[in-house]
Amino acid sequence: MSKSERAGGFARRLIAWHRCHGRHDLPWQRDRDPYRVWLSEIMLQQTQVATVLPYYARFLQRFPDVTELARAASDEVMSLWAGLGYYARARNLHACARLVVQDHGGRFPAGGAALARLPGIGPSTAAAIAAFCFGEPGAILDGNVKRVLARHWAIEGPAGQARGTRALSERAQQELPPAADIAAYSQAIMDLGATVCTRAQPACDRCPVQSTCEAHRQGRTDELPARRVPRQRPVRAAHVLIAVCGRSVLLARREPRGIWGGLMCLPQFDSQAQLERSATQLGGPGAQLERLADRRHDLTHLSLALKPYRLRAVRGARLTGLGDAQWVPLAATDATGMPAPHRLLLREATAEGLRGRSPRRSP
Q: What is the model's pLDDT at position 321?
């Protein structure tokens, strides 16, 4: 059997399986509008469908098209994204929307190569948008697709390393069906990886390509794709100040790059001494810091050992040397793009520390 016959058989079986067993009710499948497909693809990067669904609905309600998103203030975009993680995606999303409006008249370019030049859109995401919206053949290589290909063809090497990625990319290109079937095939292979060929305990008995799967034949579904040896995350201490005055809390905008870049956060310091100096500015010489329970927050590349302190600031207090710091009404913090760990700290600290106390005027 030739390569093209083998590839066609693989694609045909996936497409036939998807007609009966695939997912057809996801909101971004109802209308192959490039804006909606692009939004879903960015949100789905390293994030599960169940997590994305409510965020996607809220984004569309507030920003029904790319023009509305481009016009929005960055604070509002980050606020709606807060809790979804990987915040560089939100910054790139906003930058991409503005570029599409500015340089493309509000219409996404109809081709994978042009799409991949936009902020935050890599080759795989560009291929997905081009396939679903414009019928352009292209190899999608998200985590689910990589897993299906690595197992079916017994491709060795970690999928995230150059050798493994190159082999998977070559195989993905060989398996592409004719252009007329590219959208159906792309959805089918992603669905297979998400619902059947899962990372743990794949349901091989329900797989439409089990009969030709090398990993199944060799009894190696738990070995492929090969996993990179996990590196221990370094731990970084982060001293967090929850300074409340009356019905307002002090928040500071972080630098555009780095952890939680561009978000409004509780003031965070590298050392307790730095935090105490700032607390003296806010609470006066007799400022009393209350130490709260430590907690840990794991990020992709490191773990933050959060050490929170609560302080009741004096009216009119100002904090110097903290960049863009401002007092924000507690009632307005839900509409502020705060990272989830800081939002949780604030809720717990204010619920425990302010209950039953008479409020003072905000600065």
A: 72
Check 5, 41, 68, 214 and give the catalytic one. 41
Compute the C-alpha angle 282/349/361, nearest 5°.
45
Can you say how many angstroms the Cα of residue 300 is from the centroid of all Cα atoms in its chain? 11
- Amino acid at the residue 226: A
Stretch(es) of the chain classified as CATH 1.10.340.30: 3-218
Q: Which residues contact 225 (CB under 8 A, 6 or more apart)?
A: 146, 147, 150, 151, 155, 157, 158, 159, 164
Q: May I ask the CATH class of domain 3-218?
A: mainly alpha
- DSSP lists the bridge partners of residue 250 as 327
Q: Which CATH class is domain 235-353?
A: alpha beta
Annotation says 68 is catalytic: no
306-336 pLDDT, tens per residue? 999 999 998 777 777 777 888 999 999 988 8
Within the chain, residue ranges assigned H as helices are: 3-21, 34-44, 49-62, 66-71, 74-81, 88-104, 112-115, 123-134, 143-152, 162-174, 182-195, 214-218, 272-283, 340-353
**CB burial of residue 46 (10 Å; 0-12, 13-18, 19+):** exposed
Q: Are 269 and 239 in contact, with CB atoms under 8 Å apart? A: yes
- The pLDDT tens digits of the residues spanning 83-120 come to 898 899 999 999 999 999 999 999 999 999 999 999 99
Query: Where along the chain do the CATH 3.90.79.10 domains lie?
Result: 235-353
Alpha-helix residue ranges (DSSP H) falling in 202-271: 214-218
